[in-house]
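Obj.: predict assembly geometry.
Materials: sequence records (below).
Method: joint structure prediction, all chains together.
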Amino acid sequence: MMSWAVFKQAAASRPHQMVGSVHAADADMALLQARSVFARRPRAVSMWVTPMASTLTWSHEDAEQLLTETPPLDSLDIRSDAEKSEVWQVFRKVGKSRSMTFVDHVGVVDAASADSASDDNGDITPPGMDDGMDDDDGSINPPGMDDGMDDDDDG
Amino acid sequence: MTETEKLAEFEARIARGEKIEAGDWMPADYRKQLVRMISQHGHSEIIGMQPEGAWITRAPSLRRKLVLLAKVQDEAGHGQYLYHAAESLGTTRNEMNEKLLNGRAKYASVFNYPTPEWADVGMIGWLVDLAAIKNQTMLSFCSYGPYSRAMIRICAEESFHHKQGKEMIVRYVTGGTALQKEMAQNALNRWWWPTLMMFGLPDGQSTNSAQLSRWGIKTKSNDQVRQEFINEIVPELQAIGLAIPDPDLTYDEESGNWIHGEIDWDEFWQVVKGNGPLNAERLATRQAAHDSGEWVREAVEGYADRQRTRHAEAEKMVSSS
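Observations (raw structure tokens):
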């Protein structure tokens, strides 16, 4: 079984947020599991699952280092190599306070590798502009299931 | 940075109220304590499905049955949240499952007690789930991000569980038959002491507590949380006329606290060591569920493998044509 990261969007106007992970043999089953574990309550309008192994995460220390060090030259010119460029989804932890979710989806970048994608903070396309996602694809929970719990609560 | 500097920075982050995340530097002991606590917490949710799950087929009405089904399904989900949080520290689902099944990992002792009558389902909701909410609310403020987030998610659902149990017992006691009232009182007699033990050893005797509180894992002591629970539940139980099975229970005017009598810690240790009423049965049931799920795990892996092979073959045909 593989581990899959689960991203949930609570409302069309909100970003996808990482809510946890599930174990499954394939993506379809991961989505099914994610739905039964994370979207029974509170509601969701959209969910993504991605193999945990294909996410690159930057820790607190990495982020500090990034702020104090100049990024290596080769990572500044990544988009000149169009051949190797891929689309990377970028998520960021936005607060330090007590919360129900981990990181928020902040957009997409084109980059040759996950490393250079995470260096490339300047040119992120915000979600909804060019991410190919349809916000109006129906609610995962039937109407009436909303119990007023809100994943976005801090506190 | 030296290890000492890293530790100082780590403790400063906790003092500032920051959450520690999976990839961040942390002392080996912090990681070890969290893996122990979170996996055992996850096991408690999974084993905790059994005492009430046993009543699903015998629920007295469709309404009660639907509520109970949803509740037990929630517990399974809580186990998933917690196992995920533990995995973020480097352990695996298989390792945790093995330790549970071979008895090396513990789970909440309260689930080793039997549920001989239907009212036990309601009393577990009212007492055990309230105790869990008190403990988990404290843990939702803990310094480890993934554990804290799992706790917030769980507490929100746990409050449904608490309310359904309270509603059931209040109805039986205040509007039910003599038999229903007696059934509720018997359930309270069975669950009162095991619930008080859920908060763990008294403050002076709990060996892990000092370090756990210094690193912001536990933000209140065992006795503090136990007191919060007692102060809330005693007036509620008394208000509907149930008798709390503790002749020494007194109200202390000065502190505003209800003071309980002596807890039988010998019994607690007996159950922790595996000699409780149902320890062996709980693990045997879990083992049987794991074994009978083997073919499902094999089938989904087989299906996923076949899909991947087909996909790879299709890609090859496209690229060669």
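Conclusions so far: Chain B touches chain A through 37 residues (CB under 8 Å).
To do: check interface contacts against the pulldown list.
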